[in-house]
Write a structure and sequence with these properties.
Helices cover about 20% and strands about 35% of the residues. By secondary structure, it is α+β, with helices and mostly antiparallel strands. The termini are far apart.
Length: about 180
C-alpha cells in the first residue's frame, strides 16, 4: 500500500550516525489496518534513528490525538496521544522479535518496515478507560440522551430489575442498617 511506503526505511545507504524522520499519522494510515479501533486521528511522529555498525536504535516520539468511542455513551471522543518509545534493532541471522523493544533482522537486510510497530505503539498506549473528559470531569461531555436510554434499558440479570430500581432498593437497604458502637 502506498500509504505505508514512507514507513519502509532504507538504512543500507545511510551513513553511521543520527537520522531523523517525520510522519503525520491519520485516517489514511489507520485505514491500512483491517481491525483498527482507531479510524480518525492526528498524530505527529518524530523518529530518530541512530545507525551503528552492529545495530540501529529507533526513538519514537508520538504527539497528537485519536478518536475512539466513549465507553460510557458510545459517542466519539478524542483521546490524547503523547508518549515515547525506544526500539533496538540488532543484526543477526534471521528475523526474530526478542522482546517488545528488541528485534533481530538478517545482516544482509537493507530496509526495515516500521509501519506495524508504529501501529502497535499507538494502540498499546491508549487508555484502558476511554471517556469524555472535556472539562476535567469524567463523562461530562457524554451524550445525555444515550445515557438516559442505557439507564432505562439496563437490567440486572439476577433479579430482572432495571439498574435504576436496583440502585434505589440498595439505598433503602443501607438506610435501614443500624450501627451499634458497643457491639
Amino acid at each position: 500500500m502506498k500509504e505505508l511506503k514512507p514507513y519502509n526505511i532504507e538504512f543500507a545507504g545511510l551513513s553511521q550516525g543520527t537520522h531523523r524522520f517525520s510522519y503525520e499519522i491519520g485516517e489514511a494510515f489507520f485505514g491500512c489496518f483491517e481491525h483498527s479501533e482507531i479510524a480518525f486521528g492526528a498524530i505527529s511522529l518524530d523518529l530518530t534513528m541512530e545507525k551503528e555498525s552492529d545495530m540501529l536504535v529507533f526513538d519514537y516520539d508520538f504527539k497528537g490525538w485519536v478518536e475512539l468511542d466513549c465507553d460510557i455513551c458510545l459517542k466519539p471522543c478524542r483521546q490524547p496521544v503523547d508518549h515515547e518509545h525506544r526500539m533496538y534493532v540488532k543484526f543477526g541471522n534471521d528475523f526474530t522479535e526478542q522482546s517488545e523493544d528488541v528485534i533481530e533482522i538478517p545482516s544482509e537486510a537493507s530496509h526495515l518496515d516500521i509501519a506495524h510497530y508504529v501501529y502497535e505503539y499507538i494502540h498499546l498506549n491508549l487508555p484502558i478507560k476511554r471517556v469524555h473528559t472535556g472539562d476535567g470531569h469524567e463523562g461530562s461531555e457524554c451524550d445525555k440522551e444515550m445515557l438516559d436510554k442505557v439507564a432505562r434499558h439496563s437490567v440486572d440479570l439476577k433479579t430482572g430489575n432495571t439498574v435504576e430500581s436496583l440502585a434505589a432498593s440498595s439505598q433503602e437497604a443501607l438506610k435501614k442498617l443500624r450501627f451499634d458502637k458497643n457491639n
